[in-house]
Amino acid sequence: MERTGTEAAATQPGEGERGETERTQAGRTRTEGTAPEPAATTGSDGAPHAEDEATKKPRRRLRWTRRCVPALVLLLLLPLLGTQIALRLNYTGDYADGTRTRGKDALWLGHAWVDGRKKDADVTALAARLKDTGIRDLYVHTGPMEHDGTLPADRCPRARWFIDAVHRALPGVRVQAWLGDELATEKPDGMRLELSGTRAAVLRTTRQVLDTGFDGAHFDLEPLHSGDGHYLDLLDALHRETAARDVPLSVAAHQIDPLPGLHSVVGAFTGHPKWWSQEFFGQVARRVDQIAVMSYDTMQFWQSTYGGYVAQQTSLALEVTPDSTDLLMGLPFYHENTPSHRAGAETVPAAVRGVRLGLSRTDAGRANFGVALYVDFAATEDDWTAYRTGWVK
Fold first, then answer.
1. How far, in Å, CA of 318 to CA of 359, rounded?
2. CA distance 71 to 65
3. Coil, helix or strand for 109?
4. What does the DSSP 8-state code read for residue 329?
5. Distance between CA atoms of 207 and 189, rounded to whole angstroms?
6. Residues of 147-173 as b/e, b for ≥16 C-beta within 10 angstroms?
7. How far is Cα 296 from Cα 347, in angstroms, rounded to an integer?
8. Is the bond into 385 cis (omega within 30 degrees of 0)?
9. 179, 199, 233, 246: least CB-packed within 10 angstroms?
10. What is the reported pTM?
11. DSSP 155
12. 349 neighbors 380 (Cβ within 8 angstroms)
């Protein structure tokens, strides 16, 4: 998500050609095979010539290839097809009563709110937009932090103005500092949580933003691999600080393995595990006051399978999140098309339906639950309407 932290940034090659080549070659072979084969010639002792045997072997291999390749392709496609059917079925069903906003929703805001680009009129318009919704928290982009964990003082010069303006216009709404950086987990450059000095600097940065007047600290560190003990150590230190100040510690969380151990398998082949284990998600959730699942960028092609995926993620997260921790499911308020995000599939209506289905099936009465809208500067009127009609009212 950090890639779209500022408004300037917003936040597979197939096998077709090879398959076409194989089909074309096979077609030529079939055409050539319609002609009668010449009779085998034999030597004086009646045995076939060596060149005839050499000709037959490639033909046998080609026949074997024709029979086995389709079977292998089918073997690979069946699990994918089964997964898509399961997600589609997961998108069906009815909601339980009361699966609407609990007044604990959140909205990610871009950097323009704290760097001087936004004015009083913009805050007035934001207040009107959020009136009578379930928004309680605003995650305003205050970073990115430097790779050493520090935050330059000039990175958010209008932070105090924005905090005060929101408190006046939207009483009861909390303004949290959204702090993030890219981790050096998959390439040399980035923040290294294994360094104690870096973790200490992040703690000092947290004190810095809270001293500015922010109502909490929201962290988004990516890509964060499942099982990272240094991240858990950092959360422990951060929570001691935020608890002492009686403000929330909040994090953006990766999605949970849709199949057990999937992050390990994918990580072994790609170097990018993407998901967290459900166990690790629970370990994180127990160390914070609020956890927001980034339930988008799912590589789904249809609204129904995306909604079914969100329903599954909602259930998996509810199963391991303590009742005392606010669990928020992310809604995609952006419309770019990338290999991991198809705007026509990952829609707000599909996400809201998935959230409500997952909540209905797992813990319909969970009080500390909501949705988190990503992100303000890419949102459309249709997004806001879908949120209001599907979740608020």
1. 8
2. 10
3. strand
4. E
5. 25
6. bebebeeebbebbebbbebbeebbeeb
7. 9
8. no
9. 246
10. 0.81
11. G
12. no
Question: What φ, ψ does residue 290 adopt, rounded to 5°?
Answer: -155, 135
Signed CA dihedral, 223, 225, 229, 233: sign only: positive
Is residue 366 within 8 Å of residue 101, measured between CB atoms?
Answer: no
In sequence order, the β-bridge partners of residue 174 are 137
What's the CA gap between 241 and 94, in Å, rounded? 43
Residue 132, sorted as left (phi over 0), alpha (psi -120 to 50) or beta, turns out to be left
Q: Which residue has the tokens 């009129």?
A: 121
Joined tokens for residue 328:
């928020």
Distance of CA 328 to the CA centre of its chain: 13
* Helix pair 348-362, 303-320: axis angle to 10 deg: 40
Residue type, 168: R
Burial category of 286 from C-beta neighbours within 10 Å (exposed 0-12, middle 13-18, buried 19 and up) = middle
The type of residue at 159 is A
The two tokens of residue 368 are 């500390």
Of the candidates 265, 274, 337, the one whose C-alpha atom is nearest the C-alpha of residue 309 is 274
- Distance between CA atoms of 133 and 110, rounded to whole angstroms? 20
Phi and psi based region of residue 261 (left: phi greater than 0; alpha: psi -120 to 50; beta: remaining): left
> What is the phi/psi pair of residue 107, to 5°?
-140, 125
**278 is written with which tokens?**
């459900």
Question: CA–CA separation, 77 vs 83, rounded Å?
Answer: 10
Residue type for 27, please?
G
Q: From first to last of its 393 residues, what are the pLDDT tens digits of the chain?
A: 644 444 444 333 343 433 433 333 333 333 344 444 444 455 555 555 555 665 666 776 677 667 676 766 656 666 777 889 999 999 999 999 999 999 999 999 999 999 999 999 999 999 999 999 999 999 999 999 999 999 999 999 999 999 999 999 999 999 999 999 999 999 999 999 999 999 999 999 999 999 999 999 999 999 999 999 999 999 999 999 999 999 999 999 999 999 988 768 777 777 889 999 999 999 999 999 999 999 999 999 999 999 999 999 999 999 999 999 999 999 999 999 999 999 999 999 999 999 999 999 999 999 999 999 999 999 999 999 999 999 999
